[in-house]
Write a structure and sequence with these properties.
Elements (H helix, E strand, L loop, with lengths): L2 H4 L3 H5 L6 H9 L1 H22 L10 H8 L3 H8 L4 H23 L7 E7 L7 E5 L9 E7 L3 E13 L2 E11 L11 H4 L6 E5 L4 E6 L3 E10 L19 E5 L2 E4 L2 E5 L4 E5 L6 E5 L3 E6 L7 E6 L2 E6 L2 E6 L9 E7 L4 H4 L9 E4 L9
Length: about 375
Amino acid sequence: MKCEDAAEFVSALYDGERIPREAAEHLGGCEECRDRMSAYSAAGAELRRMASLVHKVELPVGTWAKEQRRSTKWWHAASQMMRIPRFAFALMMCAILVLSGGLAMERAKAGSTGPILRLRAKPPDGKKAFDCYMPPKEETRQNCGEFRSVAPSGNLSIGVRFIQREGQRSQIGVKAVYDNPYPKWMLGRPSDDRLTDVAEEKIWVEPGETQTIAIAGLGSMEITAEYIDHMPPFPFSPDDTIDVKPNVFRLTAPVLLRGKEVVFNFGGASGEFDDKPGSGDAVYWPGEGRFLFSLRPFQGAVEGKVAGSQVEFQLEGQTYTLLTGVPPTSAEHIWIKHEPNYKPSQRDSLMKDDTGFLGAAEEKDFPTE
């Protein structure tokens, strides 16, 4: 029997009730549970001591029944019939709530009730930590990844996948590599391909504990875990709000429509860039080519009008509508370019033409007029 199960029988024991043999054996041999029993006993003794300081007040004959008939509300009836002052009664109720709350916290602190595993990783580069949310399903590929530049010219690539869960702990596989300098040709490759040749380290994580992963050439990355009951609206940026930061464009779960036809749908992806020259995002979709997005005008791009979480623009004589999970920018316009004949393999023979991806494009992809 576990502590959280045996804890339910502590109050029954002090009420003079019999408890199961298994619970009695556990309470007798577990130091943590014995401390809980001692605290429970001390609270009861203190309440009885306080009640003993008060003189008994005899109620007139018939008052008991009269008060019972007049009210059935438990608090009112209890306050009238108790032979200890209301302060002592209130203190007793608080003690009961504290004790029962303690039992609830014993269960809650385990963090085992939520179906979603939340990982928070703090890379050794000193930048903001990133969160990874994974449902408890076995996967053969990475569930989430992080790719960030590290000054002056390096790049940190991280991939995480869920393996299995046993009670309060989960096993995950982590791939992490630091490249300095970072090969520019890798920027356009799908995230899975970037980590293909990186060795995976399998670790167990559980709430309240911190694990570390060594990253060669950079340092150690800390990983903490907890379980939550739902997938957050911004899994890639859980601290973000609906309002977007100034001079920033973000693609959150983007869907592109051409008329009523769906061109691409990246429900589980997100990207962000600023308004610096040569900065922007690229979305590649098999059979549709590549779409480039920027907050600045660039050669061959058309202007799109932003309205809330939608961006509407005209391309090749047709109307396109970009839908995003949250408003993409506080600006009124962005610029878009379509390259229908673009093939990832043309840039890198190792890249796949049948796999869509969303990610940062290179500065040369955004030539100014």
